TrEMBL record:
The keyword Cell cycle does not apply. GO terms for molecular function: histone H3 acetyltransferase activity. GO terms for biological process: positive regulation of transcription by RNA polymerase II. This is KAT2A acetyltransferase. The gene is Kat2a. It comes from the Eukaryota. Residues 330-351 are annotated as: Disordered. One of its GO terms (cellular component) is nucleus. The keyword Translocase does not apply. InterPro entries: Acyl_CoA_acyltransferase, Bromodomain, Bromodomain-like_sf, Bromodomain_CS, GCN5, PCAF_N. Keywords: Acyltransferase, Bromodomain, Transferase.
Length: 724
């Protein structure tokens, strides 16, 4: 019976009814049945909709989708697409509800609560969410940040050659990407470092950013805009100084994860790019913010006109997080990958690389590929590619091969599946999801079944399902955070009665997950707030390289071991070669050059080079001693005379792994460490490299390094130690 005073809140019942087993077919809910929370009828008295159809809605959610006692009668003629939209809003409301309780900042909490009430109201009224009040509608400024930055590139760099100009354009793309996913400081943090008259304006912009840019990243019900598209110079002036410092620090901390080409670009050119941009942001007469900004066609005609709006990409080495218990939320990472080619055009190789170089960058000491290919042709017996077994291979080699064979024969299959609220779900996919929910529930009895069900069917989560004979026997449930550069593993289990019979498949999944460690290398700021912390749970990390096929790892290692074994055999055959004795002394010859002795050149391969004679040790010592003395007396050598003191640079030895200085080189020279000129030149170059890696490019130290480098290379050429 209808009761206008009913305030059913069944969706938030602290003691919900026991959930039915998911593996049993659930009857379609009839509208005449009572709500399990308040006891009122779900719909009208006839029990069916006026359209003559039954409505399948979880009875525990019925109170949230209605504000009257006729709980779902207002949904009788609503399309399935609209129902899915409303259910999506329910998910977003629950996420906002959690955010309100988790957030500590007062201003941010108020915005979360406002959006929570807005979406709840839209669900009840079945309307579209519209942010009301004095915030206005996007865009809030013209020109926007993106246009201003592109104007800056044209204004400052249009005179450069095409290749250098394109480099500046890629730096601007990277900066815009960072801004679109950067978390802004709260008004209270801004107030501590700014003038009072700026705080009110920043608070308005911060609220706009939360409502239109940040929260919609994780709440699909709200319209989302890119920060660089809807804001302009006003917001950029407020955040640039802090963002620039945090951004450069982030790159500096994570520089080891960058590919070498990008590391030079980011650590050397990006700081200078930001310094020049800063002048245009705060300069009163900068033309880049004018609505009618133009560049003469002759100067700017060749600038690539691709849109700078950038999408997220997978980070080159992607960390995975795993917990024995848990999961949740969303976020932001930086595009440091190679620029994408223009639509319809193939990606071009760098000018300095040939096609063969692109396949494999060669380094000194590499074994010639011709020799490797020749050796591989001699390897015909796969069973022979073993060598001494390590713990890794003995544990994984046979089972990996068995799993690969079973997968190849179709006995077991792997599928990445997930639920969707925007598309009609495939019946097979839904059955697999139900099967996964059962496997996780049985194998993880300490986890609440409702929690497992919610995550398995959450559209933001995906599951790698292990299928045998069309049914689920195991899986790994995970959630990706592409903007943060990591993936969280939530559940991993295999059904108990298959753990023996399908051991290969189970082990294959175990191999997928090998490499997890308690040593977390990802900065805490990247995952804090995105992964829930549970009592008794252990956070672990596994870093994956996209260039490594992990399912073939043991097979690859076997092959590498056999190649090395064959190469060693060849080398040993050369070493054991017996050369004929010398007969020249019987003929009266008293002295011969050492290199004319048969076998000497072959045994010194790598040290002895064709066309050059082995230097006399004393001659080399005196030459290097004279050169080092000249370097030490050079006016620009003062920063490198002695080892860096920890008191002057506390983090120096954390960043620089192989420190070197002129004092250390002097001691090495006295101890006859430099038996070849290459060792001496390598230490000189490392002094310069370390300086550039630790110090900003425009610092006095880097200027000294540049000058000293030119000087000692001039001296090396002058002394004949390197080719002119």
């Amino acid at each position: 019976q209808a009761n206008d005073a009913c305030k059913c809140n069944g969706w938030k019942n602290p003691n919900p009814p026991t959930a039915p087993r998911m593996d049993l077919q659930q009857p379609v809910t009839n509208l005449s049945e009572p709500c399990r929370s308040c006891g009122h009828a779900l719909g009208n008295s006839c029990g069916t909709s006026r359209a003559g159809r039954a409505v399948l809605i979880p009875r525990s959610h019925c109170g949230f989708l209605s504000g009257t006692a006729d709980h779902v009668s207002h949904l009788e003629n609503v399309s399935e697409e609209e129902i899915n939209r409303l259910l999506g809003m329910v998910v977003d409301v629950e996420n906002l509800f959690m955010s309100v309780h988790k957030e500590e900042d007062t201003d941010t909490k108020q915005v979360y609560f406002y959006l929570f009430k807005l979406l709840r109201k839209c669900i009840l009224q079945m309307s579209q969410p519209v942010v009301e009040g004095s915030l206005g509608s996007p865009p809030f400024e013209k020109p926007n940040i993106e246009q201003g930055v592109l104007n800056f590139v044209q204004y400052k760099f249009s005179h450069l050659p095409p290749k250098e100009r394109q480099t500046m354009y890629e730096l601007s793309k990277m900066f815009l990407l960072c801004l679109n996913y950067w978390k802004l400081e709260t008004p209270s943090q801004f107030r501590q470092r700014s003038q009072n008259d700026d705080v009110a304006t920043y608070k308005v912009n911060y609220t706009r950013w939360l409502c239109y840019c940040h929260v919609p990243q994780s709440c699909d019900s709200l319209p989302r805009y890119e920060t660089t598209h809807v804001f302009g110079r006003s917001l950029l002036k407020s955040i640039f100084t802090v963002t620039r410092r945090q951004l450069l620090e982030k790159f500096r901390v994570e520089k080891d994860k960058l590919v070498p080409e990008k590391r030079t670009l980011i650590l050397t050119h990006f700081p200078k790019f930001l310094s020049m941009l800063e002048e245009e942001i705060y300069g009163e007469n900068s033309p880049i913010w004018e609505a009618d900004f133009t560049v003469p066609a002759a100067e700017g005609a060749q600038l690539v006109s691709r849109p700078a709006a950038v999408s997220t990409v997978t980070v080159p080495t992607t960390p995975l997080f795993s917990k024995k218990l848990s999961s949740s939320s969303s976020a932001a990472s930086l595009d440091t990958s190679t620029p994408e080619p223009l639509p319809g055009k193939k990606r071009k190789l760098p000018e300095s690389l040939t096609l063969e170089d692109a396949k494999r960058i060669r380094v000194m000491g590499d074994i010639p590929m011709e020799l490797v290919n020749e050796v591989m042709l001699t390897i015909t017996d796969p069973a022979a590619m073993l060598g001494p077994e390590t713990s890794l291979l003995s544990a994984n080699a046979a089972r990996d091969e068995t799993a690969r064979l079973e997968e190849r024969r179709g006995i077991i299959e792997f599928h990445v599946i997930g639920n969707s609220l925007s598309q009609k779900s495939n019946k097979k996919i839904l059955m697999w999801l139900v099967g996964l929910q059962n496997v996780f529930s049985h194998q993880l009895p300490r986890m609440p079944k409702e929690y497992i069900t919610r995550l398995v069917f959450d559209p933001k989560h995906k599951t790698l399902a292990l299928i045998k004979d069309g049914r689920v026997i195991g899986g790994i449930c995970f959630r990706m955070f592409p903007t943060q550069g990591f993936t969280e593993i939530v559940f991993c289990a295999v059904t108990s009665n298959e753990q023996v019979k399908v051991r290969a498949g189970r082990r294959e999944m175990g191999t997928h997950m090998c490499g997890f460690s308690k040593d977390i290398k990802v900065p805490k700021s990247r995952y804090l707030g995105y992964i829930k912390d549970y009592e008794g749970a252990t956070l672990m990390e596994c870093e994956l390289n996209p260039r490594i096929p992990y399912t073939e790892l043991s097979h690859i290692i076997k092959k590498q071991k056999e190649i090395i074994k064959k190469l060693i055999e060849r080398k040993q055959a050369q070493i054991r070669k017996v050369y004929p004795g010398l007969t020249c002394f019987k003929e009266g010859v008293r002295q011969i050059p050492i290199e004319s002795v048969p076998g000497i050149r072959e045994s010194w391969q790598g040290v002895w080079q064709e066309g050059s004679e082995l230097k006399d040790p004393d001659q080399l010592y005196n030459m290097l001693k004279n050169l080092l003395a000249q370097i030490k007396t050079h006016p620009s050598a003062w920063p490198f005379m002695e080892p860096v003191k920890k008191s002057e640079a506390p983090d120096y030895y954390e960043i620089i792994r192989f420190p070197i200085d002129l004092k250390t080189m002097t001691e090495r020279l006295k101890n006859r460490y430099y038996v070849t000129k290459k060792l001496f030149i390598a230490d000189l170059q490392r002094i310069i490299t370390n300086c550039r890696e630790y110090n900003p490019p425009d610092s006095d130290y880097c200027k000294c390094a540049n000058t000293l480098e030119k000087f000692f290379y001039f001296k090396l050429k002058e002394g004949g130690l390197i080719d002119k």
